[in-house]
Amino acid sequence: MIALGLDVGTQGTKGLALDVDARRVVARAATAYGLIEGLPPGHAEQHPGTWRRAVVLVVRALVRELGSQAPQVRALGVAGQQHGCVPLAADGSVIRPAKLWCDTSTADEARELSERTGQRIPTGFTASKLLWMKRHEPAHFERLRTVLLPHDWINRELTGRTCMEAGDASGTGFFDVRARAFDAAALRAIDPRLAECIPGLVPHDEPIGIVRDDVARELGLPAGVLVAPGGGDNMLSAIGAGATRTGPFVISLGTSATAFAHADVPVIDPDGLIAPFCGSTGGWLPLLCTMNATGVLEEVRAHAPAPNDHAALAARAERVEPGCRGVTFVPYLAGERVPDLPHATGSIHGLRAGALDSAVLYRAAIEGVTLNLAWGIGRMRALGIRLERVRLVGGGARNALWRQVLADVLDMPVTALEEPETAALGAALQAVSVTGAARLADLESIAEGESSVTHRPRPEAVGCYRDALGRYVQLVERLS
């Protein structure tokens, strides 16, 4: 049996094929895309059609790579970027491009909804996007009949079924995570008729349908492929990283940085900075999300002199001492969610002669992103979330310097998992489980495969970064 897992993200769609009997990935594919260009500052949008075309390309590529094994594909799961808003009209057509998690144009609406509901709704969540559309595009809002999240829309394209599941839905801003149900009062705070536009919830452990015959032919899949409920990329990444029980703590370094762990009960941050998400396995997934991660390093790389690939820059930056000669990079190039500064900008402090060397700036970018992440992780610890060792995933996990800086800043061992694409792997594992072929617990060994290298904290660097974190927090508080 083979299961496909797709991760429909912000920068592209990735897919893999998992041979369940061999317990290994046997095919991979990916395609890249970007945001809609020319929008005003703070706006970040993609058309859902971009995702669909990417899914077709990726699945077809997987089928080609599988060759004679392709008829063994029995199930498919989809992970998707969280918080996006896909508005549909009565005929099922997409009304306008989807506003994404990184869109900060709805900051005023998020602040207003937080005041109306008495609970903090971050700028990136779906709720503020709907109020923004109601206020700024009333003709579009009048046509609205269905609200979907990105992975739900892909599921609808695959199966024809319109539904949501608790994990991804818990990132909308109108979901009661304790009750695992939609929050009627929060929906009314946006618009009295909005509840009619929200589809029903499906269980996390049952298939939502099969790939429609016409879509199966388009994708090159055999008939009757089951489709799992899927989930938000973080929820499925938790499955793919083995964080389906208490203990493992996962950090994902991608366009944004996330840190999360499984919890058996809801973990509620009174200030709303740590998201109290539901998981996609029936539990909960308290999660920290910072907006700026790999993009900050890419910004430095893009403007560095050759050789300016990440490997060359990291090798040079490794020779710069921890603390970066006093240079502090506040990495808020896209605003920031934690701390809640959606309109913040980035800045570099402590510049002296020689500090504009690309190696110094590259290390300062790594340290700035990591210090900001550590600030939020400290809040997770204060809420009772236990951290012993870190499992690192995402594109940034390939950077050995970054792994060591994380170990030093957090003062705990950091190990990158063998499979960096944990969201796609989690989607495939969930797909296997809904067929009844195996339980998630039986598939843990696939999810928990670690690389042979663990980075351990260095005492001399731990103290340096402890002081640097204090200076970083004071600097941001003074600037904001």
Strand content is 15-25%
Number of helices: 16
The secondary-structure class comes to: alpha+beta
Mean pLDDT comes to: 95
Any idea of the CATH class of the domain at 2-232? Alpha Beta
Number of strands: 22
Largest sheet: 7 strands, mixed
What is the alpha-carbon Rg in Å? 22 Å
From the spread of the alpha carbons, the general shape counts as globular
Provide the CATH topology of the domain at 2-232: Nucleotidyltransferase, domain 5
CATH architecture of the domain at 2-232: 2-Layer Sandwich
CATH superfamily of the domain at 2-232: ATPase, nucleotide binding domain
pLDDT < 50 stretches: none
Helical amount: 25-40%
Name some characteristics of this structure.
480 residues; alpha+beta; Nucleotidyltransferase, domain 5; seven-stranded mixed β-sheet; 16 helices; globular
Account of the protein in words:
This protein is an alpha+beta fold. The protein has a domain at about 1-230: ATPase, nucleotide binding domain (Nucleotidyltransferase, domain 5), CATH 3.30.420. Helix content is about 35%, strand content about 20%. Strands 1, 2, 3, 5, 11, 12 and 13 form a 7-stranded mixed beta sheet that branches. The chain has a 7-stranded mixed beta sheet with strand order 16-17-15-14-20-21-22, with helices on both faces. A two-stranded antiparallel sheet has the order 4-7. Strand 14 and strand 15 form a beta hairpin. Helix 2 crosses helix 3 (about 125-135) and helix 11 crosses helix 12. The protein is globular, with a radius of gyration of 22 Å.
